[in-house]
Amino acid sequence: MTMNLANIIDRIEIEELLVRYARAIDSKDFDTLETLFTPDATFDGGSLGCPTGAPQIRAMIEGTLTGLDSTQHLIGKSLIELDGDQAEVKTYLISQHIRESTPGPVKHYALGGEYADRVIRTPDGWRIDYRRLDRLWKEGDREVISGAS
Model pTM? Predict the structure, then answer.
């Protein structure tokens, strides 16, 4: 792909969209989170569910994170394949989840994975239209997540 100023700007805006997502979920800013998806987006979260619609995606994520003491989602540099007003994006992630009230000695659940996204340009900027979370590894107690809500 030929790099030009418009492509560079698009790439920066897409990367910022993904950072805003990580910051929104870690700060539990679910109002902002919902605005990062298109109204009819789909999020294939595997065992978490596969909701369609920004409000339903918000509800899935909010239900998973409510009750956790803290989370941190670190994302890597994204591989972005631009195609006009849409792009396919692959981004590695490591996420850490802490819930002090989890029974037993282990109070954390971490996973490494990859987000596979389709993002589209909207009048409000780039938004996630499809997201799939592919888990690559995990560590800790899954009860941290499953018992969070």
Answer: 0.93
Quick count: other Cβ atoms within 10 Å of Cβ 117?
Answer: 24
Strands 108-122 and 125-140: antiparallel
Provide CB contacts within 8 A for 147, sequence distance 6+.
67, 99, 102, 103
Domains in the chain and their CATH numbers? 5-146 (3.10.450.50)
Calpha distance 21→139 (Å, rounded): 23
Rg (CA), the chain: 16
For 95-138, how does the pLDDT look when each residue is reduced to its tens digit (9 = 90+)?
999 999 988 899 999 999 999 999 999 999 999 999 999 999 99
Cβ–Cβ < 8 Å for 3, 11: no
Question: What is the CA angle 72-78-52, rounded to 5?
Answer: 70
The residue whose two tokens read 């969070």 is 148
Query: Across-strand partners of 135?
Result: 113
